[in-house]
Every structure is written in structure tokens, then in C-alpha cells.
Amino acid sequence: MRKQLVIVFLPAFNEEASIGDVIKRIPRHFHPRFDVKVLVIDDGSKDRTVNIAKEAGVEYIVSFEKNRGLGAAVRAGLKECYERGADIGVMIDADGEYPPEQIPDLLQPIFNGEADYTMGSRFLGTIHGMKLHRRLGNYFFTFLQSVLLRKWLYDGQSGMRAFSRQALKHAEIIHDYNYAQVLTLNLVRKGFRVKEVPIRYQVRTTGQSFITFKKYLRSVLPAIIKEMLRPVKKEKIDRSFDKGLKPEIKKNSTKNSGLKQKYDNFVKNLERYIDINNDNHYH
């Protein structure tokens, strides 16, 4: 039986201090029927980011000759995941602020048919070390997304996300500088279901920030307006695997007590997703 391929990609710009540890912490063997690979999108780094990623065991590296911006790096990561045959794509920042150990948690709503696109939510989970101005900025942009989508979100700025294969295919990022808001606006407007998953978050202690706040404001607001004004069409999304998963979820939801029950449900949903997705695989 063919294993399902999960590709975890890390957009990186001068992250030599943290990227090796992040790669080593990515779960590779959380289920025997999943094959996990790691991809680094090097956004024109001038330090040892690429060499350290290789030493840490990364399978794929795509390097830009010069720095193009976080939005361009994430766009390339989504494209590379799809073209390399990923069934699920995962994005996580290379700065060590997000917990690679929780990648399986991020995947579960996709496996059990609840979502096509997931985001690790710091504000539903725990946050250590975030300064007030960053919190306020997150609240502002997340509230703006919630209003525009008419759907309540808690953390629209997350740097940890997962995508079904169809979400990988249809995701568009119109802005090279950043991706956080326009990507969610784009996918939800196209009919993809988003769900947030609580995560643990620790503000970076090494390296430099990928963005500055003033430039972020000047660049992101016009991009949000542009995304909302341009027409998008609802995609025809194949969710045939949902039919095999939802009865299992409903049956177990009343008995979901304790970590063992949660783990058993997770494994069952993984196996059902694999069996059904093998029958409906289209790449």
C-alpha cells in the first residue's frame, strides 16, 4: 500500500541559529503509513542557513539568488509541495518559535474530514514572551480577517499551517512581502474550510525577525484590499473521504475521555484517511 506523503516546508532567511534544531524536532515517524519529508525554501540567505539545514537532514532545498520576501518563499513552498506529490503540505517558521512536535495535531482536522486548511493558534494555546505591540497587531489583523470572512478567527498571523493537496493546488499569494492574511482570505473565499488548532508558542531568542512592523503595515493593508477586490471562484473540492470519517468521529465523540482515547481516535482517523485517499488520489 502506498504511503501518504507529508512535506513540511520552512521558509528561511538567515536562520542559521535556529533552523537546524527546528528540522531535527520535526516528527518523522508519527504513523507507519506516512512518509515525512522536509523542504527548505532559502530566501537568499547570506549566512550558513543552507549548510546547517543539510547537516540537520533536510531532503529538499530550493534557494533564491536574492531575498524575495516571505510571501514569495511561502508561495514557492506550496508549489514545491504540490509538484513533489505531497498529500499534505505543512508550513512552519524556521525561527524556532512554533512547536514542530505539534505537527500531528495540526494534521488531525484534515485527516478526520473537518478541514482542508489548518492554522496553529497561539491565542487558543499558550504564548510565552510576546510583546504587547505584537499582540495588538495580531488582534487587529485577525479581527480584520474575521470581519472580511464573516468567520471568527483567533490567530490569523500564525506561522504554522497545514494544507490538503487541493488547498496546495489552489492557494494563491498575491504579495511577495507577506502571506499571512491574503492566503487565508484566498482559500476561504474559494470554499476551503479552515480550522485553528491550539499550539504552544515561544518568542524567538536567536536570529533576526523576518519583517519589521512599519513595513508590515504599509505593505499588508493594500494587499488585503487587493485580494478582497479581485474576483475568485468557488472551487470544486473533492471531500469524498469525509463520508468514511465522519461516522467514526460522531461515534467516538461521546466516549472521548483521556489521552489514550484521543490517541486511538487519531490513529483510526489516520488509517481511514489513508485507505480512502488512496482510492481518490488524483496526482
TrEMBL record:
* Sorted UniProt keywords: Transferase
What name does UniProt use for this protein? Glycosyl transferase family 2
In Pfam terms, one family for this protein is: Glycos_transf_2
Q: Does the keyword Cell division apply?
A: no
CDD domains recorded: DPM_DPG-synthase_like
Q: Which PANTHER family match?
A: RFBJ PROTEIN, UNDECAPRENYL-PHOSPHATE 4-DEOXY-4-FORMAMIDO-L-ARABINOSE TRANSFERASE-RELATED
InterPro entries per the UniProt record, alphabetical: Glyco_trans_2-like (IPR001173), Glycosyltransferase_2 (IPR050256), Nucleotide-diphossugar_trans (IPR029044)
Q: Which residues form the Glycosyltransferase 2-like domain?
A: 8-169
Coiled-coil stretches noted in the UniProt entry, renumbered to this chain = none
Q: Which organism is it from?
A: Bacillus methanolicus PB1
One Gene Ontology MF term: transferase activity
